[in-house]
Amino acid sequence: MPNHLFDRLFAPHVGVSKPFLHLLDGGIVTYDQFLQTVASFAQALVQSGLRPGDVLAVQVEKSMQALAVYGACVQAGVVFLPLNTAYTASELVYFVRDSGTKMFLGDGPKLDAFRGAFEGLDLRLESLNADGSGSFVTLAGALDTQFETVSRGPHDLAALLYTSGTTGRSKGAMLSHENLLSNALVLTQEWRFSDQDVLLHALPIFHTHGLFVASNVILAAGAEMIFLPKFDVEAMITCLSQATTMMGVPTFYTRLLDEPRFNADLVRHMRLFVSGSAPLLAESHRQFESHTGHRILERYGMTETNMNCSNPYDGARRAGTVGKPLPGVELIITDTATGLELLQGQVGQIEVRGPNVFSGYLNMPEKTKEELRETGFFITGDLGLIDEEGYVQIVGRNKDLVISGGYNIYPKEIELILDEQQAVVESAVIGVPHPDFGESLVAVLVQKPNEKIDVKSLSTNLGAALARFKQPRAYFIVEALPRNTMAKVQKNILREIYKDIFINP
Ligand code: MLC
Ligand code: AMP
Q1: Which of 212, 372, 374, 447 has the highest CB neighbour number within 10 Å of its CB?
Q2: Do the Cβ atoms of 41 and 69 come closer than 8 Å?
């Protein structure tokens, strides 16, 4: 039966003995082995009671099996909800509740700790451990390695990806088969991926970048991946010699540039380096070129839209720009107040429309209406301009968002928790430049009269509630927050005051 995404990305590889994944321990997983695992996992999903359209939430370490779970969901018509491995139990409870998740697949030891938090939820729990073992794998091991693919059309939901929001409440972006497939095919073509490519894959696979951009492109091209559990300079240096391409967030590139063994000889044979998810400093772009002779190809995307723009494969890759809209993607710049389209060169909000753009936020019709116009244009919240040669430059954000090492953090979520802490009147969380993560978090706190904020216990409390990457790296106590005449906190002033604390500590 036709399945829009599976038929194009996965099915052509059934029975193919070519390598798909090269693992850090030297192991190789062929396409056929991968597809057999996918099919047996799809059987296990059905055995577990999941039906097409049901949601499977997954918080597991990166592994061949973890990627196969994604394939199994596509094949069985189950909606795939991947979750950052850093999320705490209380964060997970929100996602599981909001999405109506039917089954949660977690890392064994962590799952035991989460059982209490999940109590009372109508949720099946199964484990998939970092080494590829676990109750889910045991279940699948007894099942068939063939599966009759469930029929899914282009507009059926393939995945639900949560992205945090300005209100502090995370939003589940609904991504269809067509959203994912159209983008994978365009990127494969634009970046000239072929079955001769070997991608060095060190990104996590719970976000758009590592999952859809990287893995889907490789599947579409029938190429290979060196599948590292995480970014590690040592492993990167070892594996680069066998790769033809690499994708990463800017932190990957700045960390590599700091490594003396990373030089032109090591990467002379490489075909392509892609950067995205956060701004790549023009300085890093130039430094990379003078160091290696390669010009990084920077592209721009979002969870809600997949990829929107890319610098060209052939032609000028311009530092400080994210290139031009991809084929099929329309991008306009509009006035933030009126929504009217602006002229070339003027700065405004970036809006995009195309087959890559999601259909809305789950359970949030009002929020969807605010950001997704009836015309189909999605208001990204990024500010930018289109220059005289049609290249898009992102100049800022119209949303209170911090991007740390490629992870998005909405300060509101942290402020809500800080404001509840002992002796805190109110708080403001800002992002300031950080040499490794690009931006990092600072919390500015106002203390209650005659009380004293205990930063140590406050950060312990935060640790129980929030993933580590969302926890501020520095705290400052002030008498009052700067406010404008409308009583709005002036974060720009705070960012100016604390701008050097990580650069010149
Ligand atoms: C890890 N830590 C972070 C962090 N990553 N803190 C802030 N920001 C981050 N991004 C924490 C760790 O828990 C640890 O806490 C400490 O920082 C130092 O850890 P590390 O060992 O140095 O970090 P590492 O594990 O090496 O991770 C850094 C990283 C990783 C950059 C390799 O964060 C990463 O892979 N980022 C990629 C994110 C990504 O894929 N984004 C794509 C989103 S999709 P402690 O306890 O030691 O203090 C998207 C759309 C698009 O945006 O366009 O692509
Ligand atoms: P996310 O919500 O994690 O999908 O992150 C999407 C956001 O990351 C975008 O709205 C941008 O603000 C930012 N982003 C992605 N790619 C780039 C890039 N190349 N340059 C600047 N910002 C980027």
Answers
A1: 212
A2: yes
Check pocket membership of 65 for ligand 2, CB cut-off 6 A: no
For the CA of 298, the closest atom of ligand 2 is: 19
What predicted TM-score, i.e. pTM, was given to this entire model?
0.96
Q: Are 62 and 90 in contact (CB under 8 A)?
A: no
Check pocket membership of 207 for ligand 1, CB cut-off 6 A: yes
For the Cβ of 407 lying below 6 angstroms from any atom of ligand 1, the answer is: yes
Tens digit of pLDDT for each residue in 452-483?
A: 999 999 999 999 999 999 999 999 999 999 99
Nearest residue CA, atom 2 of ligand 1? 469
- The model's pLDDT over 259-282, given as tens digits with 9 standing for 90+, comes to 999 999 999 999 999 999 999 999
Q: What letter does residue 212 receive in the DSSP assignment?
A: I
Ligand 2 centroid vs 252 CA: distance in angstroms? Answer: 16
Tokens representing residue 368 in the block: 């969807």
CA-CA-CA-CA torsion sign (208, 214, 217, 220):
negative
Helix, strand counts (H, E) of the chain = 17, 24
Could you say which ligand is closest to the alpha carbon of residue 204? 1
Domains and CATH numbers, the chain: 4-17+31-190 (3.40.50.12780), 231-397 (3.40.50.12780), 401-497 (3.30.300.30)
What is the distance, to the nearest Å, from the Cα of residue 432 to the centroid of all Cα atoms in its chain?
21
Please state whether beta strands 157-163 and 424-434 pair in parallel, antiparallel, or not at all (unpaired): unpaired
CA of 224 to the centre of ligand 1 (A): 24
Mode of pairing for the β-strands spanning 28-30 and 19-23: antiparallel
